[in-house]
């Protein structure tokens, strides 16, 4: 029992260690993922070494199995959409709120075609950016380092720099995945049963119609022979 508790405690401890995604843009995009001792640089892509450029052995193509059709039609999915929004949005919202965007930094220099256009563009972009930041702060946990947007009356061209560090906890992701899975099953199981019931009813009705047609054709043939 003690060993089981230790294993569970270790698993929970690992799930409480956040996955960190560091990204930004400064003349080129940068993106890096870290978890414990794992580190992966997505952008800029690392240069391939000679060993990395070696050709991989081609595996023989496997026989493709026929894909099973999804039991629900597009119409059924559209009918489920309002219920799906009501059930699936809350766990997604909780997950996003538990996700932390830290060290958020944004620097922009706005340059238009002339001074008047620069002022107009600055007003539009400044309002849009601060609205987006406020909206992001409501959806997620946002820690702003600085947001600096200036009109570049003396600059030659526009400039844009941004950086942030996102932390997501595997335990929160797991809880959200379980909640989404349960909610999806609660929605889909009754819908699939109803679709099967309608399909069986349609098949029975079609069989009855065909039987009636066969009976009528038989009667016509027998009448013709007796005449």
Write the layout of secondary structure elements.
Elements: H1 2-15, E1 19-26, E2 29-35, E3 38-43, H2 74-98, E4 100-110, H3 115-139, E5 141-151, E6 159-168, H4 170-226
Parallel strand pairs: 4-5
Antiparallel strand pairs: 1-2, 1-6, 2-3, 4-6
Helix pairs in contact: 2-4
Outline:
The protein is an alpha+beta fold. It is 53% helix and 23% strand.
Describe the fold and architecture.
It is a single chain. It is extended and about 90 Å long. The longest helix has 57 residues, at 170-226. α2 packs antiparallel against α4 (170-226). The model has no long low-confidence stretch (mean pLDDT 78). The chain has helices spanning 2-15, 74-98, 115-139, 170-226, and strands at 19-26, 29-35, 38-43, 100-110, 141-151, 159-168. With 227 residues, the chain is α+β, with helices and mostly antiparallel strands. A six-stranded mixed β-sheet has the order 3-2-1-6-4-5.
């Amino acid at each position: 029992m003690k060993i089981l508790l230790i294993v569970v405690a270790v698993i929970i401890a690992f799930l409480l260690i956040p996955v960190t995604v560091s990204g930004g843009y400064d003349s080129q995009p940068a993106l890096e993922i870290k978890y414990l001792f794992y580190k992966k640089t997505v952008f800029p892509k690392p240069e391939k070494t000679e060993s990395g450029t070696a050709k991989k052995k081609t595996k023989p193509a496997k026989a493709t199995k026929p894909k099973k059709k999804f039991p629900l039609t597009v119409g059924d999915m559209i009918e489920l959409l309002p219920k799906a929004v009501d059930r699936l949005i809350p766990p997604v919202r909780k997950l996003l709120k538990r996700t932390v965007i830290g060290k958020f930094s944004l620097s922009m220099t706005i340059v238009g075609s002339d001074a008047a256009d620069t002022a107009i563009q600055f007003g539009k972009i400044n309002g849009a950016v601060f609205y987006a930041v406020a909206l992001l702060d409501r959806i997620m946990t946002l820690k702003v380092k600085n947001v600096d947007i200036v009109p570049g009356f003396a600059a030659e061209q526009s400039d844009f720099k941004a950086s942030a560090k996102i932390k997501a906890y595997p335990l929160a992701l797991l809880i959200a995945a379980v909640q989404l899975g349960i909610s999806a099953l609660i929605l889909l199981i009754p819908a699939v049963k109803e679709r099967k019931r309608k399909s069986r009813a349609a098949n029975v009705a079609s069989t009855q119609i065909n039987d009636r047609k066969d009976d009528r054709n038989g009667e016509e043939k027998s009448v013709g022979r007796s005449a």
